[in-house]
Amino acid sequence: MINLQNELAGANSVAIAGHVRPDGDCVGSCMGLALYLRKYFPELQRTEVYLESIPESFHFLKDSDTIRDSSEASGAYDVVFVLDCGDRERLGDSAVLLDNAKKVVCIDHHISNKGFGEVQYIEPQASSTSELIYLILDEEKIDTPIAEALYMGIAHDTGVFQYSNCTRRTMEIAGLLMEKGIDFSGIVDRTFFQKTYIQNQILGRALLESMMLLDGKCIISAIRKKDMEFYGAGPKDLEGIVSQMRYTTGVEVAMFLYETSIQEYKVSLRSNNIVDVSKIASYFGGGGHVRAAGCTMQGNIHDVINNLTRHIEKQLEEAEEKQTLKG
Ligand code: 5GP
Ligand code: MN
């Protein structure tokens, strides 16, 4: 646990940054903290948030229009908060902020986070970074806009309170946030479930073209760059596809890939009960959580899929062996 008062003693300027392709938890935690600091630490002359462009549906968050694009990140800040980001590379263009920062405070819940910065608050058991931000704030000082940001973050990273990372503490925090006058069902509806027509079309296409591997234990699908261009879809429009694939009966691992450039794929992995996908993603230079992880891989699509499948198969075999020994 960290104490904000102590960490900000004597500071005049703060920057807050999160990972590339910011998701609900990343944006929620960054904005929750920014709104709190701007309101309750008037001695801070500047509190800037640097992120890549955020989904339209997050624009309802108070002051989301003050978020600066990470490509503009520069300058020397007294304190740089790095939120929901497992390593320096995942900061993208915002990583330059670390070079001139007087102090870096890293707050995260990724199991793959090896720790960086002078101050670290990393709790892999936490549902979300937004949950950790809640814990460092004064409960009575959390107003409606701050609660909206944190509730959105917690709801997104728990798949709306469904994943195994969702604990009693998570639910209690969410319950307290619900009492702050937020439109909790509207937030979930509009930012999590609602999809644009294009997003639904591309989801349908990915499901239609999916394949089952490893005796039905693994489902995979890939989208090519030219198909994304056809639909006018960007990476933000692909969120949720891999989660839907995971809901296939009998499947342990879902794997979704999209082409980022020639012979380069962004990989999303999800598992249900057995496979530690964070281990696999980390092996290929990425990271994440036990049940949700990702990485970027080079090579032709067949090699990429084969390489990933081999690791999944190995873990499944190991799990089966353990089971046999027990039995
Ligand atoms: P997604 O599949 O939704 O992009 O990501 C799932 C989880 O894995 C998220 O927690 C995300 O932060 C993490 N993740 C995805 N891609 C990468 C990556 O390239 N590097 C690291 N370190 N983590 C990633
Ligand atoms: Mn997160």
From TrEMBL:
<protein>
    <submittedName>
        <fullName>Bifunctional oligoribonuclease/PAP phosphatase NrnA</fullName>
    </submittedName>
</protein>
<dbReference type="GO" id="GO:0003676">
    <property type="term" value="F:nucleic acid binding"/>
</dbReference>
<dbReference type="InterPro" id="IPR001667">
    <property type="entry name" value="DDH_dom"/>
</dbReference>
<feature type="domain" description="DDH">
    <location>
        <begin position="14"/>
        <end position="154"/>
    </location>
</feature>
<dbReference type="InterPro" id="IPR038763">
    <property type="entry name" value="DHH_sf"/>
</dbReference>
<dbReference type="InterPro" id="IPR003156">
    <property type="entry name" value="DHHA1_dom"/>
</dbReference>
<dbReference type="Pfam" id="PF02272">
    <property type="entry name" value="DHHA1"/>
</dbReference>
<feature type="domain" description="DHHA1">
    <location>
        <begin position="230"/>
        <end position="317"/>
    </location>
</feature>
<dbReference type="Pfam" id="PF01368">
    <property type="entry name" value="DHH"/>
</dbReference>
<dbReference type="InterPro" id="IPR051319">
    <property type="entry name" value="Oligoribo/pAp-PDE_c-di-AMP_PDE"/>
</dbReference>
